[in-house]
Amino acid sequence: MDKFVINGGNRLKGTLSVSGAKNASLPLMAAALLAPGKHEISNVPELRDVRTMAHLLRITGAKVELLDHTLFMDTEPCTFWEAPYELVKTMRASIYVLGPLLARFGKARVSLPGGCAWGPRPVDLHLMGMEKLGANLELSGGYINAEAKQLHGARINFKIQSVGATGNIMMAAVLAKGTTLLQNAAAEPEMAALADYLNAMGAKIHGAGTDRIEIEGVSELKPANFRNIPDRIEAGTLLVAAAITGSELTLNNLRVDHIEAVIDTLEQAGYTLKAAENSVTLSSTGRPLPVDIRTAPFPGFPTDMQAQWIALMSLADGSCTITDTIYHDRFTHVAELKRLGADIQVEGNTAFVRGANKLQGAPVMSTDLRASACLILAGLAAEGRTDLSRVYHIDRGYERIEQRLRSIGAEIWREDEPMQT
Ligand code: UD1
After folding, report:
1. What integer pLDDT is reported at residue 215 of this predicted model?
2. Are 296 and 349 in contact (CB under 8 A)?
């Protein structure tokens, strides 16, 4: 197992290019199953989750290659409609193949994902939507067995906005007979990107990127090429890396309209942000001011930036509260931040943060993807050495993060960590 060693305290300076979005790549890859033939998706990050989805597509019979951030997929040879437990347990987003497999083959067998470090994370909305579209579902042996000779359009009103359920149902509904209306749908940019790709294949989707999406079913889709959107969470994380180290950093290849909530919150914390068309520059003048946040669906402050914001606020000049309204248990990073000297109490879904003058390096452990990002940020700002173990979590979502941070002046490197017995 690898670990990161960070010598904190360095100022960062320079320019980085934002990677393609992980959370868009995964549904885009699943969507390729809907149109048998050759697809190319560019600007895809080379990450473990992308490789897991590629593996899953290969199990269905697809040919998939990722070369220099472009995915070459041939979904013509697909004949198998199962997503096995061994893969789904390593990546919940595997459930994205449920809708496409069902729409293409009239059946799908997909393992139930189970819980995760942030709580139970149910998939009831995915199942409810498939049933409304006319699928017969049976849960047995830890698997969802779905069947439908012909899916039909339906009105679906989500009780909670769910990115995954919106994407899954959108992919099932594109080949359904009739029109589907999704209300209280997820408006995240990843869903707008998915709809753009499906429309490039010949689907008729209107309103994606808002909470009301209309899908007119079509009888078939044709393969298409597509350029993936930039990763708004990677962009936000890198901006916080610059902020927490009192640095200046320019990011290129991003969509400023996708990260407005993070930009606004950084400005409230006292940073100067200059945005141009596809780039933004952050400069710092001193310690951050405390800023309360409540995570919310897009365009609100993303839950995937909550842990990184807590890292920054642990050095704020004052106290603030950080509430996660999406995942109430998503605070495993707090205990590790406290090991670095942060002063944080969690009650329910709110973290009360009292900014400290400084953090002190220590050995810490990452528990999930964004928690790892949070601990890297804290380590960059802390005095002395931080050893962050279990960095396999970060490799799921940030491509070569240590090399890229080093290129702008951070002292961070990867070491092999002997297994503990
Ligand atoms: C996606 C992102 C994840 C992000 C999350 C919220 C990917 C691969 N992952 O996850 O990084 O943190 O959106 O922005 O894109 N819910 C239900 N029933 C369901 C589905 C969801 O109750 O059937 C609840 C969840 O428990 C959560 C809320 O809805 O409280 C939002 O979850 P959802 O948007 O579905 O998250 P994911 O798509 O799994």
Report:
1. 98
2. no
Instruction: Name which residue sits closest to atom 27 of ligand 1, judged by CA.
Output: 326
Give the position, in ligand 1's atom list, of the atom nearest the Cα of 304.
12
**Which candidate in 78, 116, 320, 374 is catalytic?**
116
Residue nearest (by alpha carbon) to ligand 1 atom 5: 163
Judge whether 116 counts as a catalytic residue. yes
- What dihedral do alpha carbons 250, 256, 262, 268 form, nearest 10°? 80
pLDDT of amino acid 121: 80
Distances in whole angstroms, Cα of residue 63 to Cα of each of 56, 69, 90:
11, 16, 21
Q: Residue 414: which of 396, 380, 387 has the closest Cα?
A: 387
Task: State the alpha helices, DSSP H only, in 176-322.
Answer: 189-200, 232-244, 260-268, 306-313
Q: For 419, which DSSP code?
A: P
- Dihedrals φ, ψ of 115, to 5°? -80, -175
Enter the DSSP assignment of 256: G
Ordered domains of the chain (ranges, CATH) = 2-19+230-416 (3.65.10.10), 22-227 (3.65.10.10)
Ligand 1 mean position to 260 CA, how many Å?
A: 21
Q: Which of 25, 50, 52, 160 best tests ligand 1's pocket when mutated (most atoms within 8 Å of CB)?
A: 160
* pLDDT of 403 over the 60 cut: yes
Ligand 1 pocket by C-beta < 6 Å: which residues? 23, 26, 92-93, 121-126, 160, 162-165, 186, 190, 303-304, 326-327
Distance 164 CA to ligand 1 centre (A): 6
Share of the chain above pLDDT 70, in %: 98
- Nearest protein CA to atom 30 of ligand 1, as residue: 326
pLDDT tens-digit series, residues 15-68: 999 999 999 999 999 999 999 999 999 999 999 999 999 999 999 999 999 999
